[in-house]
Amino acid sequence: MSTVYRSDVLGSLLRPEFLKDARASFAKGQISVAELKRIEDRCVDAAIAMQEAVGLDVVSDGEMRRSWFSGLFTDQLEGIAPASAVKARLTGEGTEAQKTYDAPVVTGKIRRRRPWATEEFAYARGRARKPLKATLPSPLMINLNWSREHSAAAYPDPFQLFAETTEIVRAEVEELAAIGCSYIQIDAPEICLLLDPKFRKTGFDDQGISSARALSEGLEMLNAVAAPIAGVTFGLHYCRGNFKGAWFGQGDYGPVARDLFGRASNFQRLLLEYDDARSGSFEALRAVPEDKTVVLGLVSTKTRTLEQAGELIRRIDEASRFFPCDRMALSTQCGFASVLEGNPLTEEIQEAKLRLVADVASSVWG
Q1: DSSP labels for 14-30?
Q2: pTM exceeding 0.85
Q3: How many Å is the Cα radius of gyration of the chain?
Q4: Is 33 exposed, middle or buried (0-12, 13-18, 19+ CB in 10 A)?
Q5: Taking the CB of residue 60, how many other CB atoms lie within 10 A of it?
Q6: How far apart, in whole angstroms, are the C-alpha atoms of residue 62 and residue 85?
Q7: Residue 21 contacts by C-beta under 8 Å, 6 or more apart in sequence?
Q8: Where are the domains of the chain?
Q9: Which of 132, 176, 192 is nearest to 334 (CA)?
Q10: Domain over 17-365 is classified CATH 3.30.70.2740
Q11: Over the stretch 158-170, which tens digit does the pLDDT of each residue have?
Q12: In whole angstroms, what is the distance from residue 61 CA to residue 108 CA?
């Protein structure tokens, strides 16, 4: 039985401009590590204070120390190096325009340089008065960094890479638990992208990564990351891409809901994107096992429009036709800054949306 948190936060928050400037200065060698860390600390302090002030049940450090939400891989693993002219698989808003860009790719055997998320949690724990969650990327997210051209020599089978990444993410989980983290969220957008036939083809099968295996072996690897640890609640976040306000896939959970939700047996909280029609109907919630908590991601982090409380309450009531309301909670559909640049919102709108999540959750569940 998971702890009941009715108002949740997904993790990333908008980075202040001075933090972005500091990262650029650090990359150029213009400021020291110590200077960068002091600026990051300041941003984490402000992020936690804001979340607590608006009344959320759970807070995060805003992922202020990361280049993007999956930075565990690209920033901290040996065996990943920059490459040029990498072909994009599917760009935002569902378009299929092919282009190339510079990106980090797997070029050799991966190895973790050092523990990573524990630094984030240890600092934030000393600042937070509310329950503090830690967020980690799904091990399958490293599929974005595997390519036939650059990676096949080290990993001819990409699922061998995913298996090793699973061990790395699990090590992070165990270290977080050892220092007192009681709520760990795994972010798995790649799973929901498999609901979109276009992305399944262009993002997986055309790249030499079996989409069918991702929905079978991949889900088992994802579940293994959350093998039970006493006192730890595990959350699994499904979304369809979040890049500077753009999305990457669409599709109803329904066709594979029993696998999506049933195979996630080690997770107590399922954080589901439901901010617009791309996510399909709530009917898929019928497939959620009774021992789960469903966190409805009804508030969009992609747009500046502030949702209406009455409409959110109406949608919660609609969802309760398919899953018990007393086993639900509320959140935004994703983070506000999955990448450093963030989504096209202001910090004021971000705060208003998080306050709305807390207020509506309090109104519905007390």
Answers
A1: PPPHHHHHHHHHHHTTS
A2: yes
A3: 19
A4: exposed
A5: 28
A6: 31
A7: none
A8: 17-365
A9: 192
A10: no
A11: 999 999 999 999 9
A12: 32
